[in-house]
Amino acid sequence: MSVDGNPETPFALGADDLMRLDAIQEALLDPSPRRIGRLDQWGLADEYEVYAEIAQYSEVALTMSDGTVLDASLSVPRNLAPGQTCPAVVLPAPLINIGHRAYLGMIARWAVGGYAVLAYSQRGLARSTGEIHVAGPQDVTDAGEVIDWLLTNSEVDPERIGLFGSSYGAGTSLLAAANDQRIKAVAGTSVWADLLASLYENGTRHLKAFETLVQLFGEDRCSPEFRGVIQKIRANTIDDEVREFARVRSPRIHLKTYNDAATAVLLTTSWHETIFSVPAVIDFHNNLTGPKTLLVQVGDHGNPELPGLAGLSAKPTDMAYRWMDHHLGGSAGDGATPRFDVRSEYMFNPLSDLRHPSWAEYVLPKKRLHLADAAGGQNDGQGDGQLVEGAPAAGWTRSVKATGKGTDIVVAPKLVQTGLAERLGLPHVYRTADIDRGLAAVFATAPLDRPSRVRGELELRVTVKPQRADATIVAYLLDHNPATGRAHIVTHAPYTFTAEQAGKATTVTFPLQPADYVVAKGHRLQLVIDTHDPLFAYENTITPVFTIDLTSPQGAESYLDLPLHPID
């Protein structure tokens, strides 16, 4: 399954994908030999012949209590015995213009497993009426009413209901489970746990992701409350209203509810996720006490589950089938019992498959590398700095210019698309030799004498003196090959200073995104500290040029803590 989007519409499906979905929909609605035969060009004819024998598909309009009509599809088993019931899976749609049709490729697999399936487009999306509330209380109420309708109109066992969702649908699924005890299991792919942390990291707005999501929602379809929040975020007014808007849409606030109910929760995310906060998902997973598992994969938002949504094999959806089977009693999966642990791939190798009993056992201990001046003991601010073990290094200064443009080092040249290339083994190449050292400071290790792994959490401490308010620094950790000059990104994080910190030397300590990365022998790790990234600031920003001083004062020396260990 491909994604042929562009930077403005990164989630758009390819033409062949849309043609295949149209053919599947037609075959489901009219399971005639001619319709099913059309699927033979994708190798799907046999699968849907089986489906036509065991299940029945229809498209339905679900009217909510306030008159809003949700566009939905229903698949139910044929030939249930009198009084016999079946498990059910409800699928709130992801944020995509085709709404619930994004799940068409999964329906046959669920049906073979004996499930009733109800997929729906949330209010304001695709063909559903109403306004968009962004997984707000009204959307949570809708999920409960959808389940009410399903129980009334099919032979579903009320004790065996689960929710599966991707992206927007994942967040809604988790929030609905906190509100409705009939939901026994949830599987959320490309999920979020804390909406504010996803929008606002270390005082820094994730503007590119935010504007992309707003465009996908369609601003004219948003509720007045959400439109007000949109304008406040654009104006960088992160006030109590914005925080409360994000708080009530954050599954993390319902931890006690999930734990008290022992709700079974499967979560998936990606190392290079640019839409939702990965640390927040990990923290949420770590604080769940019921049945749980976490999958972290190569790529960006929505990449890993794409083949699975199309009906092919993919770790997130394969795990979801197994998860629901175990907790709801169906048979859509491979018959294996799910693992309750942390499963991951390391960047940029989607063929890797690592398992650990918990996050605590997964991460490696941190090692401290000090930010030091250039080699040779010169404290003149010339030449790249060093990342070295041993004693802290004080007394150096690096001055960089904030011009509102930055360098070619960016988190992701294209949302979603850059991560999709990573899953194909084609990570973006950076040329750090070309960095304008007047715009960014660079610190590097010596070439590693052994292959090593970075696995777990990282933290940077640095003292910064910005001349203006709202100055931002962006720290990138890169894997650099001195032989070729090519570098790949390992992790990153922004930090924005307040107006009160302008003109003052302020020591800040902040986390970088967690990572799992293998660094080859002879490669170096490079820390690049820049002042602009289009992920966090509007492009073509017109601002006066000003200076940001990076320093390492005595007693508050700068360092990078990272879980770097040789591979035996």
State the gist of this model.
This protein is α+β, with helices and mostly antiparallel strands and 568 residues long. It contains 16 helices and 25 strands. It folds into two domains: 347 residues, Rossmann fold; 200 residues, Galactose-binding domain-like (Jelly Rolls, Sandwich), CATH 2.60.120.
- Supply the helix-strand structural class: alpha+beta
Estimate percent helicity: 25-40%
CATH topology of the largest domain: Rossmann fold
Which of globular, elongated, flat, extended, rod-shaped describes the shape?
elongated
- How far the N terminus sits from the C terminus, by CA atoms, comes to 37 Å
- By DSSP (H or I, 4+ residues per run), the number of helices equals 16
Mean pLDDT: 94
What would you report as the Rg, rounded to the nearest angstrom?
A: 25 Å
- Tally of individual domains: 2
Q: Name the poorly predicted regions.
A: none
CATH evolutionary superfamily of the largest domain: Alpha/Beta hydrolase fold, catalytic domain
Q: How many DSSP-defined strands?
A: 25
Strand content: 25-35%
CATH class of the largest domain: Alpha Beta
Name of the CATH architecture of the largest domain: 3-Layer(aba) Sandwich
- Tell me about the biggest sheet? 13 strands, mixed
Helix-strand layout with pairing:
Blueprint lengths: L14 H15 L3 H6 L6 H10 E9 L5 E9 L8 E7 L11 H9 L3 E5 L16 H17 L2 E11 L1 H12 L3 E7 L5 H5 E2 L2 E2 L1 H11 L6 H11 L5 H8 L7 H7 L2 E7 L7 H10 L4 E6 L8 H4 L5 H14 L13 E5 L2 E8 L2 H4 L4 E6 L12 E4 L8 E6 L14 H7 L6 E2 L9 E4 L7 E15 L5 E10 L4 E11 L9 E14 L4 E7 L15 E6 L7 E4 L1 E3 L2
Parallel strand pairs: 3-4, 3-5, 5-6, 6-9, 9-10, 10-11, 14-17
Antiparallel strand pairs: 1-2, 2-4, 7-8, 11-12, 13-14, 13-24, 15-23, 16-20, 17-22, 18-21, 18-23, 18-24, 18-25, 19-20, 19-22
Helix pairs in contact: 5-6
